[in-house]
Amino acid sequence: MTDFLALAQPGVQQLSPYVPGKPVDELARELDLDPASIVKLASNENPLGPSPKALEAIRAELAELTRYPDGNGFELKSRLAACCAVQVNQVTLGNGSNDILDLVARAYLAPGLNAVFSQYAFAVYPIATQAVGAQGKVVPAQDYGHDLEAMLVAIDENTRVVFIANPNNPTGTWFGPEALERFLSQVPSNVLVVLDEAYIEYAEGDELPDGLKYLARYDNLLVSRTFSKAYGLAALRVGYALSSAQIADVLNRVRQPFNVNSLALAAAYATLDDGDYLTQSRQLNDAGMAQLEVGLSALGLSWVPSKGNFIAVDFARDTAAINQALLRAGVIVRPVAGYGMPNFLRVSIGLPAENARFLEALAEVLRT
Ligand SMILES: *Cc1c(COP(=O)(O)O)cnc(C)c1O
């Protein structure tokens, strides 16, 4: 029989598939639990549920499902351009911001070229990079966060892209405006900096720079954002990039013609119109983070300080058994051994009752 793994391009052979948070229904099936009794704090989803305005917009769109969506996403792009104070031709829409990362890799990376990213950085960077036969250059982290100075040193003549996440997932670590400025001012102008701001709405005005402020000065900067996290639309898959018009034009050449579906376009637009939604998401997250920090300290645990909607908890020992015990208690969190952090579990911030349920289950697991 032909070995089709051996025929895959070498970068793909070396990849492991992305491991998502365990779905509620899967755990319910495995342990014969009532899905309603399960708490999932594993995928950094918004626990609020979608904006009512998004649901209304989706219902209005349903009758049009036989039609292709607007392949140019005109209305959403115009709306984003206005919000972000850029031109419409600087906006690229993606099937989730994951799609944006892939578009960048397909347009700018190839065998013989490399992308620089940090140890413990988001798992999609190596996947996007190796999928196109390019090499990932992993730079050791500093206190679990990006070491931007070391990343600068790692850039060589074959580097075309640097991926940086602020805040980063799964660590929640962040860097401030001075560090970003120092970094951008030293990256060679022919290297594209992808600043992944998937969680920025949770952290805005809070020691973190707003990547958009740097677009005018650095035409090698691309800022990627998503509707999956604070905007609560993870299932619909919609994200966007802001960059120079030229980079947006290049990404548009490799984009699938209808990469964002019509329900996602309508829901994203409507959520931007719901000013209260983002404020509520942010408040809920701040309160939940405080709740988890109090509960974790009471259990004598430490964690990596986080500006996201999740927290990486340090158990100072392998967490596989703790994770299994939490699953048996109907609580799904995220093991991060695949990220090289076997002693940690990443916990997403949930509703107050969900956070409490996690803390109670964890206390019980650690007692036994
Ligand atoms: C969740 C996440 C994304 C992308 O999510 P999409 O649902 O594809 O928009 C991108 N970057 C980071 C760091 C993330 O955690």
Automatic annotation (TrEMBL):
GO terms for molecular function: histidinol-phosphate transaminase activity; pyridoxal phosphate binding. It holds the Pfam family Aminotran_1_2. Transmembrane segments: none annotated. It comes from the Bacteria. Its EC number is 2.6.1.9. Pathway: Amino-acid biosynthesis; L-histidine biosynthesis; L-histidine from 5-phospho-alpha-D-ribose 1-diphosphate: step 7/9. Keywords: Amino-acid biosynthesis, Aminotransferase, Histidine biosynthesis, Pyridoxal phosphate, Transferase. Its cofactor is pyridoxal 5'-phosphate. It is an enzyme of class 2 (transferase). It catalyses: L-histidinol phosphate + 2-oxoglutarate = 3-(imidazol-4-yl)-2-oxopropyl phosphate + L-glutamate. Homodimer. NCBIfam families: hisC (TIGR01141). HAMAP family: HisC_aminotrans_2 (MF_01023). PANTHER family: HISTIDINOL-PHOSPHATE AMINOTRANSFERASE, HISTIDINOL-PHOSPHATE AMINOTRANSFERASE 2. This is Histidinol-phosphate aminotransferase. It comes from Pseudomonas guineae. The gene is hisC.
